[in-house]
Amino acid sequence: MSNQIKASHEPLIHVTKRDAMVWWKSWLIRIIAVIAAMMVGTAFTWILTGVSPIEIVKTMFEGSFGTERKIWIFLKDSAMLLGISLAVTPAFKMRFWNTGAEGQVLIGALASVTCMFYLGDKLSNVVTLLIMLAASIVAGAIWAGVAGFFKAKWNTNETLFTLMMNYVAMQLVAFCIMKWVPSGSMVLSPLNSTTQTGWLPSVFGQKYLLNIAIVLVITVIMFVYLKFSKHGYEISVVGESENTARYIGINVKKVILRTVIISGALCGIMGWLYVAGLDHSIETGTVGGNGFTAIMVSWLAKFHPLFMVVASLLICFLQIGSGALASNPSLKLNSSLGDIITGIIILFIIGSEFFIRYKVNFRKKHKEEANKNA
Amino acid sequence: MLDTIISYVSAAIIQAIPLLYGATGEIITEKSGNLNLGIPGIMYMGGISGVVGAYLYEHFCAEPNTVLLVLIPLLSALLGSALLSLIYSFLTVTLKANQNVTGLALTTFGVGIGNFFGGSIVGLLGESGSVQLPATAAVYKTTFPFMKHFGDLANTGFLLYLAIIIAIAALIFLNKTKTGLNLRAVGEAPATADAAGINVDRYKYLSTCIGGAIAGLGGLYFVMDYTGGSWTNNGFGDRGWLAIAIVIFALWKPSMAILSSFVFGALYIACVKLPGLSGSDKELIKMLPYIVTIVVLIITSARKKRENQPPESLGLSYFREER
Fold first, then answer.
1. Does the residue A36 lie in any domain?
2. Which fold has domain B2-308?
3. Is the dihedral of CA A213, A215, A218, A222 positive or negative?
4. What is the pLDDT of residues A29-61, one digit of tens each?
5. Interface confidence (ipTM) of the complex
6. Residue from A94, A160, A296 to probe the interface with B (highest B Cβ count within 10 Å)
């Protein structure tokens, strides 16, 4: 009797937490999610335009890998995204939700541009580059550190704090451009374009190679830092449980502040790369939303630097590929298609995470088990 | 002098309307513990759904009916933005995904959808030119005859009044009804609410979807009324983030949201309306809303006054079996 009542109240679906999943199973789930999302994205484009899916995929591949130049641009874009993703990772691992990477990179870039603007070509190239780098690191570290300071002191909500700091940074950039460009055109033409002081040199005739190499070095350092250093260990303990961290004698406030500053400083370095390696100028859209995309990349890769390489390549491929799709004159599409497809894929992967972390039990199965037990 | 004041105040009010919709929607959402950073995307979605609905109706109907001209875009906007909020709820409530990442992805997605359809709907239907919705915009801009003395408000339709009504309704709902109390309980302590027999998941779903739908009206107002029935890519700008800032500034109170939206609206246009400002000063003034928000955020967290805090479980997914 009592059993019957119990059975009728049992919900159809019962969710339990998994302990841990074999790594290949969890990656299989993620790959299935990406493929499913690709199919949805392709179907979406197909229905709208009537272009066959094969043609869509072909255009996307050609857009990213069609020519040598396109491959370099693809690698450069991926590297910049990867670098910012790495920068936000230590803070994220600590569950410090830094949504301000966009602003931290931008302020780093602004610091570099300021140095270039006022130093001009008075100093040698190397000295200028180093001064710019130092300024960018300090600027990025301060921009993130302010939020970290208040988080450690008064537990101020860091997500909202850093989010607001993005726009403060953007307006500061707009302010400086207004000051520097008297015509009011809001376009700052590349600085020192004749002497190339404060420009990262081309290596082996490749403009982007040095940028990519620097980001790869950062990747390796970050991997070692998170995995093998004492700091990395402290970060993961604080991220798992602040109380445990306190109990084993970790100074939580110090770790939060230090990690956030490191995170901001790395963002600053990325800002320096944008200026010294790529643009030699600045606009409010220099970072182009990569600060936000990086948050997703870091999270998709489970805060693991090496998986982040894969994730940023994938996201960049989607963005550039769908950009190529959109600019195809026969399709008459709008370049925002890339955002839609990227959004679909990230939403699918976010959803798939559930099946890795949780187990879904259906009622039917339970009944059979109960019968068996009886 | 009076004319200048009226002109400034009315300009601030029309800037405040989309912000108020976004803020009211986000307050209702956040009261359930869901920090929906997808609001900017949802507001784009609301705008574009309204545009698509109105465009199809104006396109395929030779003699549009006034009532339908209002209802079709309105319902499309509500539906579109609620749909996007539903995706957010499904991912964060049922699938317990990280709210920050989901919200940001949703913003990318929503802004993408807005710009994509805004830029290509005309092309997709095999025509050329850009979206123009004169008939719908005319209806949306209709207002009381005596409003003609109030500057920009002379061309501002019913969505202005609806924004204030919704904000007041949200105030009454949150503070005076039992359902509102339950909703706040869900946001403060979901486990306690669950133990008291409140269906946590249902409250989170409903508040996020209704909140999203309200925010979507902000997008609808922008395209139909503010810009007069046209679409510019990224024209809505960062108003969605500003709405999230207002939620903090208003300390999660709808009554304060009305006032804060007006203040932010005034700051937003200060750079255009104030005389004698240089270009760079204007950019500094645009920074003010964000700095003020940060200061409010710091002060409230430092004072630790209980009624001014964010909902306790804001940003966290609730899983009953987790301790």
1. no
2. ABC transporter involved in vitamin B12 uptake, BtuC (1.10.3470)
3. negative
4. 888 888 888 888 888 878 877 777 787 788 888
5. 0.83
6. A160
